[in-house]
Amino acid sequence: MATGAHTASGDLGVSGRIPPKRQSYWDRLRRWSRQRRVQNVATLGLVLLGPVLAFTTFLVMGPLNMGASAPGLRLVLLADFVYVLLIAALVLARVARMVAARRARSAGSRLHLRLTGVFALMALIPAVTVAVFAVLTINIGLETWFSDRVRQVVGASLAAAKAYQAEQREDLSEDAAALAGYIDAQQRNIERDPTTNLRKVLTDGQLLIQRGLREAYLIDGTGELRARGERSYLFDFERPSTDQILASRGAEGLALVEDWDNSEFRAIVPLRAFPDRYLYISRAVNGELLTLLDNTQETAQFYQQQESERGLAAV
What we know:
The chain is an alpha+beta fold.
């Protein structure tokens, strides 16, 4: 008996008490979350977070003018969605506890249920307002961006820029072909009249072009300058490359060079009546409008891409 008592006493410890069970991390966290101070701070934070998210959503979709596919807008909408889910989960958990307490006929359960409903309504009003405002603003914005009028404006601006470019190319091609034909027709006059040379013929033909040319030159197959027309100065001469000269021998019978930096179009036409001679002319164009053509094409492509993505998202 003494031995058994001594063993039991050894199991209980020196003081004769059972050592307390060590609490886990989750148990400590649960006890900490049940403290009144922690609950008050969390409630106040959730209440203040609603207006903050509403103001942030207004800034992102209003003054900051972020696109529908911007990462910032997606993050803000995701935060709004998470906030609504968090509020809804907390309210449902609280209501579930109140219903359970009411069924158990706990003291003050009805009063707690009413108070919970009131505070839940006060907390949900900002969250629901944010969600409704975000959805309406996005829908109205997208409908405005992808309306028929905007689509027509984008298409019309692109068509206008392309029409101007095509018109300039066509006019220069016609004038280059007409001037080259005039020079070829003067071959016999040059052979019969010693005072007539290619420079005089080039100058006379240049003056016949009603739309006007900025410069007119005659070059050889290497790009070397052989003759200059009226107001065609040497310091304005832009020597064409070998590839451009070879391109003029193609099926079209000419090569067009678009120099947007210098706001001019150039044309190279081989002369049939004069071996190894090419007509090289230029015309001033609106370089800003031609540069705008690239921007318009990029904008139209981006608009079409966004519209297709919107259609896929709607499906």
